[in-house]
Write a structure and sequence with these properties.
The protein has a seven-stranded parallel β-sheet, with helices on both faces. Strand 1, helix 1 (about 20-30) and strand 2 form a beta-alpha-beta unit. The protein is built from seven helices and seven strands, in the order E-H-E-H-E-H-E-H-E-H-E-H-H-E. It is an alpha/beta fold. It is globular. The model has no long low-confidence stretch (mean pLDDT about 95). It folds into two domains: about 10-180 and about 220-240, NAD(P)-binding Rossmann-like Domain (Rossmann fold, 3-Layer(aba) Sandwich); about 190-215, no CATH class. Bound molecules: nicotinamide-adenine-dinucleotide (NAD). The site of nicotinamide-adenine-dinucleotide has 27 residues, from helix 1 and strand 2. Nicotinamide-adenine-dinucleotide binds next to helix 1 and strand 2.
């Protein structure tokens, strides 16, 4: 198949679900070879059925450096290079400041912040010169939303990493940019609710709070990621695409 990413190789952390899966499907459709990661083998296998023959799956935890090393070694063996790295794996833990536990804080920070940092560091030997790296932040990173302090701080850190990394990697023409979503219809809401009905209600409420009166789809995020991965965005360096349905103005 011929597409805008023909002959490119992409790694998408957390590509087994939600936004990452949407990006993986779109990249594969555009001709890229796609390696996805996730923590659960069944979820990875189901995702690969949707991605098709251009996809491979590697199980691992982005907060574990040995898992990241193994991930990139596997990709190098299989495909020889990485043209696009999407650092998307993340978790969403919310709770009041007075009750937030050290364990919740450490998990949020280990996966969303430390995981993002080392996902890029460990990829460096396999990233091609001129590669595109996309870090997934969140629109809450610049907002004061109750119960979101730790999550928001990790997502602000991700934006900061994109700026620092891109300055540091310019000698290799590696561009590092941030994709910043508002609320997106993904399974992440089920991780902070006790039933599917509650998750649906939460998504509806978030949609209604957004000026466009709905949450986004993963496909809408994938369209922006496609631009950022492609050679159409070669002047985009240390920058951000904010896709939040107008939420930033609130
Ligand atoms: P999701 O729960 O559907 O997907 C998260 C993915 O990350 C899964 O594949 C999961 O296996 C993976 N993951 C989680 N912890 C991991 C770990 N320790 N090691 C390896 N993989 C791990 O969620 P999503 O909504 O698609 O979220 C994707 C990214 O988008 C996250 O970084 C999230 O913070 C961000 N985001 C989501 C929204 C939203 O409204 N859904 C909004 C803004 C930002």
């Amino acid at each position: 198949m011929s597409g805008i990413l023909t002959n490119k190789v992409a790694v998408i952390t957390g590509g087994s679900s939600g936004i990452g899966l949407g990006i993986a499907k779109r990249f594969a459709k555009e001709g890229a070879k796609v390696a996805i990661t996730g923590r659960n083998q069944d979820t990875i296998d189901k995702a690969l059925e949707e991605i098709g023959p251009n996809g491979i799956g590697i199980r691992g935890d982005v907060s574990r450096l040995d898992d990241l090393t193994r991930l990139y070694q596997t990709v190098e063996k299989k495909f020889g290079k990485i043209d696009t790295l999407v650092v998307n794996a993340g978790i969403y833990i919310v709770g009041p400041l007075s009750m937030f536990t050290e364990e919740q804080f450490d998990r949020t920070s280990d996966i969303n912040f430390k995981g993002a940092f080392f996902s890029v560091q460990k990829a460096l030997p396999v990233l091609k010169d001129g590669a595109s790296v996309i870090l997934v932040s969140s629109t809450v990173n610049g907002k004061g939303i109750p119960n979101h302090a730790a999550y928001s701080a990790t997502k602000a850190a991700v934006r900061s990493l994109a700026r620092s990394f891109s300055a540091e990697l310019l000698d290799r023409r590696i561009r590092v940019n941030t994709l910043t979503p508002g609320p997106v219809d993904t399974p992440i809401f089920s991780t902070i609710t006790t039933s599917e009905a509650e998750a649906t209600a939460m998504k509806e409420a978030m949609g209604n709070f957004t000026p466009v009166k709905r949450v986004a789809t993963s496909d809408e995020m994938a369209a922006a990621a496609l631009y950022m991965a492609s050679d159409e965005s070669t002047f985009m360096v240390g920058a951000e695409i904010l896709l939040d349905g107008g939420l930033r103005d609130l």
